[in-house]
Amino acid sequence: MIKYNEMEFQTHLEVYEPAEDTFLFLDNLNIKENDYVLEIGPGTGIISIIASKTAENVVAVDINPHAVECTRKNAEHNKAFNIGVREGDLFDPVKGEKFDLILFNTPYLPTGEDEKVDDQLEAAWDGGEEGRETIDRFLDELYDHLKPHGRVQMVQSSLSDIPKTLKRLEEMGFEAAVTASEHYFFEEVVVITGTIS
Asked: Which InterPro entries has this protein been placed in (predicted)?
C-alpha cells in the first residue's frame, strides 16, 4: 500500500510500483476539465486516478492482467468511477477511438536478451535493445488516436534517445518539448509534452 495526496493505492508484486518517474509524471500532468484521457500502462492506476479527478473520462489500458486488476481495485477504492480499465497491448483495446490526451510512462530501459526475466512486471521497464521498442510502436499509432489539437504526455529516459522521440513527434505535426526532467544516478528522466499543431 502506498499513499499520495491522502489517497491509498494497493500494490502487487507483479505490477510496477510507483517510483520517482511516476511522481515526476504526476507532478507535471496537464489535464483539462472536459478531457477524454487514455493512459497506456497504468500499473497501479495512480496516474489514471489522479487524472480522473479533473478529466471527464479516463480509459486505462495495460498488457499486464495484474495491473488491470490493481487499477480496477484502486479506482473503486478511491471512488474514481469515470475510469474504464481494459486489458491489451498499447492501442489494441481502443481501436477506432480518439482522445484529447494520451499518457504513457514508457518502458524505456535498454534491455538485452540476457537481462530478460520473463514475468508480467517486465513489460513496465523492458524497452528492448535500444530502449525504444515500445516507444516506437506507441509513436507509430499515436496520431491516429488523438482528436484535432490532441495532446500527448510521456515519460522517457536519456538512455533511450530523447531527441529521436522529439524529432518523430515534430515530423508527425506535434509541437513537442521536454516539460520536466530529473536526474537519477546514471540517467535523466523527462516528461515530454506534445500538442498537434
From this structure: Euk-Arch_PrmC-MTase, PrmC-related, SAM-dependent_MTases_sf, Small_mtfrase_dom
**Measuring CA to CA, which residue among 23, 21, 27, 97 is closest to residue 59?**
97
- Residue 138: its H or E element: helix 133-142
Q: What is the pLDDT of residues 59-75, one digit of tens each?
A: 999 999 999 999 999 99
pLDDT tens per residue, range 80-97: 999 999 999 999 999 999
Q: Which domains, and CATH codes, for the chain?
A: 2-154 (3.40.50.150)
b/e string for 133-167 if b means 16 or more Cβ within 10 A? bbbeebbeebeebbeeebbbbbbbbbbbbbeebbe
